[in-house]
Amino acid sequence: MDKLLKLEYMAKDMDILFRATGSEMQYNVYFPGVIDGVNSLIDGLVELSDGLQAVLELYPDDSISARLDEIAAYFEDVISYYNSDDGDSIKTTFIGRLTPGFQLFHKDLSSYFFKISRLKKAVVLGVDHCSSDIEKLVDTDKCRLAAFFSSNPEQCGKNINGIPIFGVEELPFFQYDYLIKTQSVYHDDLASEEHSVIELSEYLNYYENKIHMIYSSYLSRKSPIDGFITGLSYAEVGIDPAYLNGDVLNAAVSSQDLYYDYLWAEMFVHDQRINSGIKYALIGMCYYSFEYELIKSRYKNRACFYYPVFRSFRDQSDQEKINKYKSFEQLASEIFVKDYPIHLYHLFRGLYQPAFDEMTSRFMDNEEIRQGKAQAERDCNKDYPDTVRNNTRILRKYLSLLKSKNIIPVIVVCPTSSHYSGHFSQRLKDEFYSIINSLKSEFDLFILDYFDCIEFFDRDFYDCSHLNQAGAQKFSKMLNKRLKEILTS
């Protein structure tokens, strides 16, 4: 254990004992518990002084030495008053001089240790499934993780990777600079203006598992990719890159619109680490893609999930969310490692990934079959000419970007079940193809439409319009054959 931290733990324990002993002393200075407390504090001061001497020899500090001498003198006075049976002087000296004197010493000691280590201290409030990996977030060149605090008595006295867990009631007696909170609304009364508070629960307002998985995968890559996928949920669950030739990054996300499709594509093709080998882009679309805009949909709150990646909100009116994230980001930059979003993804993915895997591995049931018509009618209930014009401009911009990099654009419409496709609007399908055909006159693009492909059956879907894992494997293999033909033509 770090020697300086060990001495700080000792000082913290003494601070707590000072308060407890002083409280009991208010009633009777001769209580056995009071006398035991005073004796324990004297023993603690001797041990703390012995430990500090080695540090002071290397890093002399007259003020720390003077504080120690002052506290020792106060203890001598207390002992003298006990010997002379002067209860009032015992109480006045212990409570009025010794206790506040030690509190000042404790603060000075923390400042002294900072001068030596040049490292600020962070503590974690709340012990949960994330705790064992929080240490990976902290940049050891900027800060040290000093302690965990928990309200669960069964956790107290244990440690996480060698870092001790204390009871939450001990937090006010610990000297630290940053408080990392792992749980929302968790002992808010313990935070003070003296400390910077980083709420990991607040970050969850900007966290979407798939977006962070994509971003984490993107940041971790060291070599060029062969292709990438964008789109909304149909391509997210329906195209499995493991069954496509080469290294392909799937950046399709539930409820994602063409605006964010373009931002992913722009990020990939402008990054020299990965763009030199990109041969194609699979643009996942559905017949209502031109009618759909995330910030105008019932899923508009999902737009904030993209801010950590692209640093922009389409709806600038939500300035409060922007400011909150910037505040989090500023604090995170002070003590976290540079690539902390990757580590946060690994911290949080356990909250979401199992449920997603379970959902996409199951088979469509009778209730979902019955919902097929209603779902198709909801998705077709769109008629937004301005949105269509705007999305057409975005897709044109997307295709122009790919053309400038000699990347082949392949528009893919994923399979849906007959219970959904059989009730879909012909008007939206005609509108979709009208726009796509007009763009084909400007760009060399391919359209692979499997919307109502008869080779897919109920067992290939987990709901009326999304392929399950087995269906995705089947479709991806089928898609890969067509891609080979396109790339070699």
Indicate the percent of residues in helices. 40-55%
CA-CA gap between termini: 64 Å
Residue share in β-strands: 5-15%
By CATH's scheme, which homologous superfamily of the largest domain applies? SGNH hydrolase
Contiguous low-pLDDT stretches (5 residues minimum) are none
* Count of DSSP strands: 13
Instruction: Please state the overall shape, judged from the principal axes of the Cα atoms.
Output: elongated
Based on the structure given, which CATH architecture of the largest domain is correct?
3-Layer(aba) Sandwich
Mean pLDDT: 91
Number of helices: 18
Please give the largest β-sheet.
Answer: 6 strands, mixed
The SS-based structural class is: alpha/beta
Secondary-structure map:
Elements: H1 3-25, H2 32-58, H3 62-83, H4 87-117, E1 120-125, H5 131-134, E2 143-150, E3 159-160, E4 163-167, E5 178-181, E6 196-199, H6 200-203, H7 209-220, E7 227-231, H8 233-238, E8 248-252, H9 258-269, E9 280-285, H10 307-310, H11 319-335, H12 340-361, H13 366-370, H14 372-380, H15 385-404, E10 408-413, H16 418-421, H17 426-440, E11 446-449, E12 461-463, E13 466-467, H18 469-488
Parallel strand pairs: 1-2, 1-5, 2-4, 5-6, 7-8, 7-9, 9-10, 10-11
Antiparallel strand pairs: 3-4, 12-13
Helix pairs in contact: 1-2, 1-4, 2-3, 3-4, 7-12, 9-15
